[in-house]
Specification:
Layout lengths: L11 H20 L4 H7 L4 H9 L6 H10 L14 H10 L10
Helix pairs in contact: 1-3, 2-3
Length: about 100
């Protein structure tokens, strides 16, 4: 029986997104014709851990995901996360003080 953690209780939408990320990583590995053993060795993780990455398991550390992406040559993709934060910028702009100028005499 697996240990109950908050990572095992993800919102359904987030769990689907994690599964999609895992599938994309698996497909990238297969396109490069790399075996589980090769990627696991290069990413310095075990084969069961790599299998969890490819399933999108949320209990695997971000560092492991990054090492796997590095082995696949996809590590720069992580830099685009939260790059276009439209909601955050709108909230920031809403909090900016609005100065009023005195009328010219």
């Amino acid at each position: 029986m697996s240990k109950s953690t908050y990572a095992n209780k993800l919102p359904r939408e987030l769990a689907k997104d994690m599964a999609l990320v895992g599938e994309q990583i698996r497909l990238a590995r297969l396109r490069r014709n790399l075996s589980l053993e090769q990627v696991a060795e290069r990413a310095q993780c075990s084969i069961p851990t790599l299998t969890k990455v490819e399933k999108g398991v949320a209990t695997v550390s971000v560092g492991t995901y990054l090492r796997v992406l590095y082995v696949l040559g996809l590590h720069k993709d992580i830099l685009s996360l939260a790059q276009e934060d439209l909601l955050g910028r709108a909230l920031q702009d809403a909090r900016l003080p609005h100065r009023e100028r005195a009328t010219k005499k």
